[in-house]
Amino acid sequence: MHSFEQLRQQMIDYQLVARGLHDQTVLNALSAVPREKFIPTELVEFAYRDSPLPIEASQTISQPYIVALMTAALKLKKNDRVLEVGTGSGYAAAVLAEISNDVYTVERHKILADTARERLKDLGYTNVQVLHGDGTLGWSEHAPFDAIIVAAGGPEVPETLKQQLAIGGRLVIPVGASLDTQKLMRIERISDDVYKEENLGGVRFVPLIGAAGWEDEEAQSATIARTEPTLPELIYQSSEHFAIIDDVNLDNLMERIGDSRVVLLGEASHGSAEFYEMRARITKELIEKKGFTIVAAEADWPDAAHINNYIQGKEPDALLQSQPFSRFPTWMWANQSVLDFTHWLKAHNEKISSGDDRVGFYGLDLYSLNSSMEAVLKYLEKVDPVTAEVARTRYGCLMPWVNDFSMYSHAVITKKYRECESEVLIILQTLLRKQMEYSLLDGEKFFDAEENAKLVANAERYYRTMYYAESNSWNQRDTHMFETLQDILEFRGSESKAVIWAHNSHIGDASATQMSASGEINIGQLVRQKYGAKAYNIGFGTDHGTVAAASEWGGPMEIKQVRSSHIDSYEHVCHEVKTDNFLLPLRQPLQELTRKKLLPERLERAIGVIYRPETEMQSHYFYASLPHQFDEYIWFDETRAVEALMKKTTKGMPDTFPFGL
Ligand code: SAM
User: Fold this and answer.
1) Pocket test for ligand 1, best of 51, 87, 125 (most atoms within 8 A of CB)
2) Whether 583 contacts 634, CB under 8 Å
3) CATH number for the domain that contains residue 183
4) Domain count along the chain
5) 13 CA distance to ligand 1 centroid (A)?
6) Which pLDDT score is estimated for 180?
7) Res. 181: pLDDT tops 90
8) Per the domain annotation, does 93 fall within a domain?
9) Taking the complete model, does pTM exceed 0.85, yes or no?
10) Which residues contact 597 (CB under 8 A, 6 or more apart)?
11) Mean per-residue pLDDT for 208-226?
């Protein structure tokens, strides 16, 4: 164990002399001052380390080498009057006092000034006076000084200090435009107004804070706040605020959408009323002001066909019947908000004489193998009973799985059963071959059968690959959605325009999210690739409230509390905005800076038909870059659960199995 004297000698040898510092006066001064007495007790063992150390008031005692270097640069003589700015621990003042007779030192922190005064007195330094104050103003009563040393970094050399130098006096000070690094300047006063400057090299000091230094911490953060608003403030400035959905003025949004052919409207959960209601508001305007005639939803084709028939006046109210939308999760479409919207669609269509201009409601998803097979067979029975018989035999291949298609892939990969791929494809091909003949009878009915036959073919492939390639089956599902959309647009004519209603995870561009790392794509990405600027996708978000969701597959719907969002999430940033509901344009931002600041990836929350607040982080959050993912983001700070319509759940594969989104 070395004594402090030994450590001090080692410091002189290895930290100072070895670095080329040979000024014997300075070396003697540093050998004489017990540095260990200037260090907080718990750090005393590090007193002779070759580094600065922390002291009270979040300040530092400088590295011994820096103290020696600056002192040497002052070229002190015994009779010099010396001013130090930044007493800190009082260590450097003691070193100066070892050399010169008169030392004055100023410290802005009272606790440091008081402690240093006591300490220096206890150590017998009677030639040092300590002042609590702003050292950038010098100490005029004792000026002029033969030497001034500033132990903190300022933005420039304070004029007052230069003025308080005697002719021939030397000032050593770190100066730099940033708070982090400075250059060590030596300034010598040659005459009244002539100063000689010298750069002694790069250094790193705590900031010099005062009238001729940096502003203090509070003023600094106030300045930062004044010049650079926080992200929530930027969002506030860059968004359109609204109180209630009915009163939102959507004129600007309509302008931003421009002549887009496809508008995709997302949702951050399948069970929050505001998302459905706002999508309805926007869709109504798109229909009325921009001639949109297609509403395509993340629902199954045959179920959606019932809504379509209802709004065309061909069937009773689909959502109030027991059959369509009766499989888990029923609340996703059979809810009051959707019901109100379908009533509006029906009333709208009644006012329109031409069938071509009426709005149609379509399903994009593929979880309806059974009812789609049924629909194809029913159609064929009417138009071509012989083909219907053959088709029934072919679809029979899938019969063992009608109660649970999730078992199909299992059986196929264990080679227990053969694949039904060719059977279902042959039915589709037969239909397509006879398109001319069949569609002459009724084009719309043929289209319905064709889409159902495609759905069966895609669903067969989907279930076949589900267990050994999950991302692959996700891609098959979203590709099916995209192809179905293409078919609908083509069927409705070259001028037709579509609104998509689906979860954020389907409509937000997957390439801007964590999904892309696992090779997943989605309809949002595919639509963007195809339509470019003529596609406009809008994501939705919320912080807290209630949501309708189940705890597990096939479980009962519960009204659950949505947890306040994660601190690292986009939702948290939006929650900090001082207004509750807003539209935030991202493709054409009101302020470019806002978009820029939102670009770095953050967490984003996705609640599907399952919500598990206990494991929220693992099961519901993923990383994304919001401005790349969406063209616009609509925020509801608080949301409420959808009001489910009474439905008796029937058995069968859950609508969104196995993703829940
Ligand atoms: N010389 C000190 C020692 O040996 O412990 C180390 C000084 S520390 C690196 C810098 C000190 O400058 C801090 O204690 C800080 O509070 C002080 N300081 C910063 N701006 C000041 C100002 N305008 N007037 C007086 N002291 C100031």
Assistant:
1) 87
2) yes
3) 3.40.50.150
4) 1
5) 27
6) 62
7) no
8) yes
9) no
10) 231, 234
11) 68
